[in-house]
From TrEMBL:
<keyword id="KW-0328">Glycosyltransferase</keyword>
<dbReference type="InterPro" id="IPR001348">
    <property type="entry name" value="ATP_PRibTrfase_HisG"/>
</dbReference>
<comment type="pathway">
    <text>Amino-acid biosynthesis; L-histidine biosynthesis; L-histidine from 5-phospho-alpha-D-ribose 1-diphosphate: step 1/9.</text>
</comment>
<dbReference type="Pfam" id="PF08029">
    <property type="entry name" value="HisG_C"/>
</dbReference>
<dbReference type="Pfam" id="PF01634">
    <property type="entry name" value="HisG"/>
</dbReference>
<dbReference type="GO" id="GO:0000105">
    <property type="term" value="P:L-histidine biosynthetic process"/>
</dbReference>
<keyword id="KW-0368">Histidine biosynthesis</keyword>
<keyword id="KW-0460">Magnesium</keyword>
<keyword id="KW-0479">Metal-binding</keyword>
<dbReference type="InterPro" id="IPR020621">
    <property type="entry name" value="ATP-PRT_HisG_long"/>
</dbReference>
<dbReference type="GO" id="GO:0003879">
    <property type="term" value="F:ATP phosphoribosyltransferase activity"/>
</dbReference>
<dbReference type="InterPro" id="IPR018198">
    <property type="entry name" value="ATP_PRibTrfase_CS"/>
</dbReference>
<dbReference type="GO" id="GO:0005524">
    <property type="term" value="F:ATP binding"/>
</dbReference>
<keyword id="KW-0028">Amino-acid biosynthesis</keyword>
<feature type="domain" description="ATP phosphoribosyltransferase catalytic">
    <location>
        <begin position="49"/>
        <end position="203"/>
    </location>
</feature>
<comment type="function">
    <text>Catalyzes the condensation of ATP and 5-phosphoribose 1-diphosphate to form N'-(5'-phosphoribosyl)-ATP (PR-ATP). Has a crucial role in the pathway because the rate of histidine biosynthesis seems to be controlled primarily by regulation of HisG enzymatic activity.</text>
</comment>
<protein>
    <recommendedName>
        <fullName>ATP phosphoribosyltransferase</fullName>
        <ecNumber>2.4.2.17</ecNumber>
    </recommendedName>
</protein>
Length: 283
């Protein structure tokens, strides 16, 4: 039985649970529960505050966990990282009041900066050779300049709307973050085996998220040209259509290349193009 720690309630919770479910792991959730056991996989889920997750995993109270890289690195626990998970993407940024003149990081020399991430900020300032006073506060960092507590802030940004609504301007990106899977360093062979099984499923889910299944019809004389445009897992599957001289081509395309490929396919004579999501992808 592997013990997984995830955030009880917050920005990581929903996507963490979604990933586990997409791996075909069933469990019953209740907002009152502190832990649940899967009904079809040797996994127990512990619900914790995100800040506690690296420590619990390092101590072996939990075997693995899902946490933001910002928290993991701030707590000095990068060594536990196993795999980036691609969700809860955000950045830790420096911001100053909108009206302040700011041109270069050296403008923060000797200034007061409020943050909940003193270590990440200190590392960044050291790299840049800037000496500033860091004020560690645990919440509502964005209001610090307006109440006279600081000249600048260093906080998590995702859409940027919190900064704008507090009259602040993002000036430097200190750290880029996303959710990461972490694991205790001393897992026994049995737990390691379950983790490998889980990772196999996570990879299948992640691969599928980036890929689309594409089906299209093409005149036979265009098959070669169109096949060149479809990278696919290997090469496209080609099936004859009832209509003479036409075939159906099936393949897999990457989401990032998707629109460009579609346009080229149409230009090459493809018709009836269907693009459908893929649930799992094993290679
Ligand atoms: O209660 P618990 O301690 O478990 O949760 P928490 O309140 O400490 O964390 P939570 O749920 O806010 O965030 C968990 C993790 O989500 C963070 O550690 C980040 O890795 C990630 N994440 C992604 C974010 C954001 N996006 C985010 N936007 N964490 C915080 N924010 C906050 C930010 O602090 C600021 O107040 O959202 C505001 C900015 O958002 P925008 O969209 O206005 O820019
Ligand atoms: Zn927290």
């Amino acid at each position: 039985m592997l013990r997984l720690a995830i955030q009880k309630s917050g920005r990581l919770s929903e996507d963490s649970l979604k990933l586990i479910r997409e791996c075909g792991i069933s469990f019953i959730t209740s907002s009152l529960k502190l832990k649940t056991e899967s009904t079809n996989f040797p996994l127990e889920i512990l619900y914790l505050r995100d800040d506690d997750i690296p420590g619990y995993v390092a101590d072996g109270v939990a075997d693995i966990g899902i946490v933001g890289e910002n928290v993991l690195v701030e707590e000095g626990m990068q060594r536990l990282a196993v795999e980036q998970l691609g969700f809860s993407k955000c950045r830790l940024s420096l911001a100053v009041p909108k009206g302040d003149s700011y041109e270069h990081i050296s403008d923060l020399q000797g200034k007061n900066i409020a943050t909940s991430y003193p270590k990440l900020l200190q590392t960044y300032l050291d790299e840049k050779g800037v000496d500033a006073n860091i004020h560690t506060i645990s919440g509502s960092v964005e209001i610090a300049p307006s109440i006279g507590l600081a000249d600048a802030i260093c906080d998590i940004v995702s859409s940027g709307s919190t900064l704008i609504s507090n009259g602040l301007r993002e000036v430097e990106r200190v750290f880029s973050s996303q959710a990461v899977l972490i694991a205790n360093e001393g897992l026994d062979a049995e737990k390691r085996r379950v983790l490998d099984k889980l990772l196999f499923r996570i990879h299948a889910v992640q691969r599928a998220q980036k890929a689309k299944y594409i089906l299209l019809n093409a005149p036979n004389e265009k098959i070669e040209e169109i096949s060149q445009l479809l990278p696919g897992a290997k090469s496209p599957s080609i099936l004859p259509l009832a209509e003479k001289g036409w075939s159906s081509l099936h393949s897999v395309v990457n989401e990032d290349d998707f629109w460009e490929i579609i346009e080229k396919l149409k230009e090459a004579g493809a018709q009836g193009i269907l693009v459908v999501p893929i649930e799992k992808m094993i290679v």
